[in-house]
Write a structure and sequence with these properties.
Layout (H helix, E strand, L loop, with lengths): L3 E4 L3 H13 L3 E7 L6 H5 L2 E6 L10 H10 L4 E3 L9 H9 L3 E2 L4 H8 L1 H10 L7 E4 L2 H11 L3 E5 L9 E3 L2 H19 L4 E5 L4 E11 L3 E13 L2 E7 L6 H18 L2 E11 L16 H4 L4 E7 L6 H8 L3 H9 L16 E8 L1 E2 L5 E2 L2 E2 L2 E3 L6 E5 L6 E2 L6 E9 L2 H14 L1 E3 L5 H7 L3 H5 L6 H9 L17 H8 L2
Parallel strand pairs: 1-2, 1-4, 2-3, 4-5
Antiparallel strand pairs: 6-9, 7-8, 7-9, 10-11, 10-13, 11-12, 12-15, 13-14, 15-22, 16-17, 18-21, 19-23, 20-22
Length: about 500
């Protein structure tokens, strides 16, 4: 049994991990950078140790500093949360060498899941449909592959995630420039310039399945819809994915478990899929029978990638399953077999999460660092808030702009949407601009209310929904705004 855990992260996920550890009777030590030494998570943890200066490379991304902090604190485990070093096999190996438990998958699984090309190969071997594509090393090879699989294509970083290194291309000229940009971004973000192409499918939805494994047995804990994205960054999620036919939902879950079983997965993880939807058109110039549109559209869904960590959006799965996923993650890290069978997983109701960020939605969601002067969060039946801030908290420019996650749960999706509207209207954050007004309008948009929007929806929504109104989320007035005003704006 773990006695003391070093939390190598910040913000709401650090506070979230600390809460579960404390409930389990596990001591917590927060490893914090200089700007975070007096943060809310630092006050919630058992104690705090300095990790380094503000730049992530000198603190949260420094493997040696994290391991040294854990050893100095007398910790017997490290929880990396998400982001930063959460999927870095170097940290997992360093913990192993130092006699520390890494609360996550073993290094070999992190390496495989983190290499998107290797994960594609494993998915295909496990019988999952994968998008036509492959690795490319120069513009000529990229154009040749694009012509074979059909336009448009999406360029991806082989060793990355989080939307970095991703670029669409619709023509040979566009592809050459985009491929160079993607490779440069991938090198800067991940130290790995390898890129690959996949056929770009639209309209489509982004649906993921939550897995839990102990290295011998893998189960799923339902699915989530993460299609509300901007520049491949998620802004809201829900569980279960709305509007999926039962057969398709079952197939997605079965495919995810097959992938995890093939990997012998240990820990929490998420398998992500692209689900084709609606009428599709193609600009394909492919002349290959095997890569024709008819073959491409033969599957209702395709494997995208696996995230070998806890996800930002895990609370919606917790809401519908009644499980504490961090507690299950810790139990597996302690070497215990799964405490659940698939039959034990019972999903009820519907949950939706909104990511509340320090961003000015009227200025292309530009980050808004500063100091929070007031923070009021909602409460009530079916309402949960995960946050790492309060009044007086600093929002440093060095990190992600996520301030809080607002999660609601209802008996069905209609009740969840209703609760989300009221909860958003009760939120107030001042001192920095936030995206609260965007969410307030979004949850009143008819397409969102119907459910099952595609990944391109949010971009179109933002293009037509911006406009000045009272409570627009600028510094000094952080209310979500009047629901009726939001309805009028979003309905156009």
């Amino acid at each position: 049994m773990l006695r003391r855990v070093l939390i190598a992260n910040r913000g709401e996920i650090a506070a979230r991990i600390a809460a579960t550890c404390q409930r389990l009777g596990i001591e917590t030590v927060l490893a914090a950078s200089d700007p975070d030494l007096d943060s809310l998570p630092a006050r919630l943890a058992g104690r705090t140790v300095r990790l380094g200066p503000a730049p992530p490379a000198a603190s949260y991304l420094d493997v040696d500093a994290v391991v040294a902090a854990a050893m100095a604190a007398g910790a017997d485990a490290v929880h990396p949360g998400y982001g930063f070093l959460a999927e870095n096999p170097r940290l997992a190996r360093a913990c192993e060498a130092a006699g520390l438990v890494f609360i996550g998958p073993p290094p070999a699984q992190l390496e495989l899941a983190g290499d998107k090309l290797a994960a594609r190969s494993l998915a295909a071997a496990a019988g999952l449909p994968v998008l036509p594509g492959g690795e490319v090393s120069d513009p000529g090879q990229a154009v040749a592959l694009a012509r074979r699989i059909g336009w448009p294509v999406l360029i991806k970083a082989a060793g990355g995630g989080g939307g970095r290194g991703m670029r669409p291309a619709h023509s040979p000229g566009e592809l050459a420039a985009a491929a160079a940009q993607a490779a440069a971004e991938a090198r800067a973000a991940f130290g790995d310039p390898r890129i690959y192409l996949e056929r770009f499918a639209s309209p489509a939805r982004h649906v993921e399945v939550q897995l839990l494994g102990d290295g011998k047995r893998v189960i799923h804990i339902g699915d989530r819809d993460c299609s509300l994205q901007r520049r491949y960054q998620k802004v809201a999620e829900e569980a279960p994915a709305p509007g999926l036919e039962p057969g398709l939902r079952a197939a997605l879950r079965e495919a995810a478990v097959s992938f995890g079983t093939r990997l012998g997965y240990r820990g929490l993880g998420t398998v992500e899929f692209l689900v084709l939807t609606g009428a599709r058109t193609s600009t394909s110039t492919s002349t290959s029978d095997s890569d024709s549109d008819s073959a491409f559209y033969n599957s209702a869904f395709y494997f995208l990638e696996m995230n070998a960590r806890i996800q930002v959006e895990h609370p919606v799965t917790e809401a519908v399953s009644g499980l504490d996923l961090v507690a299950e993650q810790i139990a597996v890290a302690e070497g215990r077999p799964l405490r659940l069978t698939q039959a034990d997983v019972v999903l009820t109701g519907h949950a939706i999460e909104c990511r509340i960020n320090a961003e000015d939605w009227q200025q292309d969601l530009r980050p808004s660092p500063g100091t929070i002067t007031r923070a009021v969060f909602p409460a009530g039946p079916g309402v949960r808030v995960d946050t790492g801030v309060q009044a007086g908290s600093a929002v440093p420019p060095s990190y992600d702009s996520l301030l809080a996650k607002l999660i609601v749960h209802g008996a069905d999706r209609a009740q969840a949407v209703s609760r989300l509207r009221h909860a958003l209207d009760s939120c107030e954050i001042t001192g920095v601009a936030t995206n609260l007004p965007m969410h307030a309008r979004l949850v009143r948009d008819p397409a969102f209310v119907s459910g099952g929007v595609a990944t391109g929806f949010l971009t179109r929504f933002l293009a037509t929904s911006r406009g000045d109104e009272p409570g627009d989320g600028r510094a000094g007035d952080g209310r979500a705004g009047d629901g009726r005003a939001g309805m009028a704006a979003a309905g156009g």
